[in-house]
Amino acid sequence: MNKIYLDNASTTPLSSEVLNEMMPYLTSDFGNPNSLHSFGRQAKAGVDLARERIAKALGCDANEIYFTSGATESNNWALNGIAKANRHKGNHIITSKIEHPSILETCKKLEREGFRVTYLDVDETGLVRIDQLLHYVNADTILISIMAANNEVGTIQNLQAIASIAKEKNVIFHTDATQAVGAINLNVHEMGIDAMSISGHKLNGPKGVGALYVHNGVVISPFMNGGEQEFGLRAGTSNVPAIVGLGKAVEIATRDIIVNSKKLRGLRDYFIAQVGKYIPMTHLNGHPVQRLPNNVNLSFGMVEGESLMYMLDLAGIAVSTGSACSSGSIENSHVLTAMGVSPDLAQGAVRFSFGKNITKEELDFVVEKLIECVEKLRKISAMSKSQVGKEDE
Ligand code: PMP
Fold first, then answer.
1. What pTM value is reported for the model?
2. Which of 152, 182, 251, 281 is most deeply buried (CB count within 10 A of its CB)?
3. Closest residue by CA, ligand 1 atom 7
4. Residue 320 Cβ contacting ligand 1 at under 6 Å
5. 151: Cβ below 6 Å to ligand 1?
6. Residues in CB range of 9: below 8 A, 6 or more apart
7. To test ligand 1's pocket by mutation, which of 202, 291, 294, 295 has the most ligand atoms within 8 angstroms of CB?
8. Active site residue 325
C-alpha cells in the first residue's frame, strides 16, 4: 500500500538536498567549531554559512541568528530571556489564546514568577483581535508574542499590523514563525519584528535544531551559561550537521516559496471544494483565505476526529486531530475552543497538512477514502444514538 503523509505540520521528511549538505559534517568534517585547527575551522565555516543563509532568507544580519535545539527552546528563551532582561522597564506581557504550548506554558511560568500576562482572544477565523491588543497594551507592557501562523488551523496573523503597534508603543515584538517560514514572506527588518522562532523539522530540515532571531539592540538574558558559543548567550558545543541542515532547509524553503505556495494553495482549495461537494456537514476551521497554503482543518459533523484519523491510517493516510484523549476524556483543542467552535465540531476536527510534493491524484484518493470513512462513522454514530433512544424508552 502506498502511504500518503498529510501531517507535515507535525513534521516533514528530510530533503535529499539538505541531507547531502549535512553528510560531510556527519563524517569527515567532524571538528568542533571552537577549535582553532583546520578541523575546527572547517566545522566553523559550515556553521557560519548556515547563519548567513538564514540571515539572508529572513532579511537580518548574521549576528542576529542564534542556533537552538528547536522552536520550543527558541520560544522558551525568547519569552524568559526578554521578560527577565527588561523587567526594569515593565511587568506586562501580551500573547494570544491560540499560541503553541511552548509559549503558553512559558507565560504561565512567568505569571507564577510575578509577571502579568494578557491572553488575547481571536475571532472565529483565528485572527487575533487587534482592537484588544490596542486596548491592553500600556506603559507597563514589555513584550508582545503573537504567532505568525497557527499550527492547527493555519490562520496567518496580520503580523505587519501587530509589529507596527509594537513599534509605536515601544514594545518588543516576538513571533513564533515555526509554521510560517517557507510559506509566507518574513523579512524581519522590513516588518519590524524584534525576535522570531523557527524550527528545522517543519521545513524538510533535521529535527532537534532551530534558531532564534533577536534584533541587535534587544536585550535578552542567556539561555544557557557556559562557553562562548552563540555569542555567549547559548552555551554548548554546536550541533554542526543539524545547523548546516537548518541553513540549507531555510534557504531552499525561501528560494522555492513562490512556486510551492502557488501549487499548494491550488491543491488546498481543490481539496476543500471536493470534500465540500461530496461530504455533507463539513466545516472548514480557520480563515478561508488568510491561511497556510498547505493547511486544511475540517470538522465533520457526527464524526469523532480520532476515530476518523485511525480509519484513515488503516487506509494508509496519515492526518492528525484537533482533540486529544487525555485520561479517558476528550480534551478539545484550545485553538478551536478560542475560535468559538462548538465542542461537537471540535471533536470532529481533522487536520490535513500537505507536503510540497503532494499530487492531485493523491488528494483524489484521500477524498475517496474520506467519503467511505465518514459515511461508515456516521452510520455507527446514528446507530448508537438510536440505541440510546431505545434504552431511554
Ligand atoms: N511552535 C509551533 C507553532 C509549532 O507548530 C511547533 C511544533 N509543533 C513548535 C512551536 C515547537 O517546535 P519544535 O518541535 O521545534 O520544538
1. 0.96
2. 182
3. 10
4. no
5. yes
6. 151, 152, 154, 179, 202, 292, 294, 295, 320, 351, 353
7. 202
8. yes
Q: Which of the four CATH numbers 3.30.160.70, 3.30.465.60, 3.10.180.10, 3.40.640.10 does domain 16-255 have?
A: 3.40.640.10
Closest among 49, 64, 7 to 320, alpha carbons compared? 7
pLDDT of the chain, 393 residues: tens digit per residue: 789 999 999 999 999 999 999 999 999 999 999 999 999 999 999 999 999 999 999 999 999 999 999 999 999 999 999 999 999 999 999 999 999 999 999 999 999 999 999 999 999 999 999 999 999 999 999 999 999 999 999 999 999 999 999 999 999 999 999 999 999 999 999 999 999 999 999 999 999 999 999 999 999 999 999 999 999 999 999 999 999 999 999 999 999 999 999 999 999 999 999 999 999 999 999 999 999 999 999 999 999 999 999 999 999 999 999 655 444 556 889 999 999 999 999 999 999 999 999 999 999 999 999 999 999 999 998 877 776 655 555
What superfamily in CATH does domain 4-10+257-384 come from? Aspartate Aminotransferase, domain 1 (3.90.1150.10)
Residue 100 alpha carbon to ligand 1 centre in Å:
7
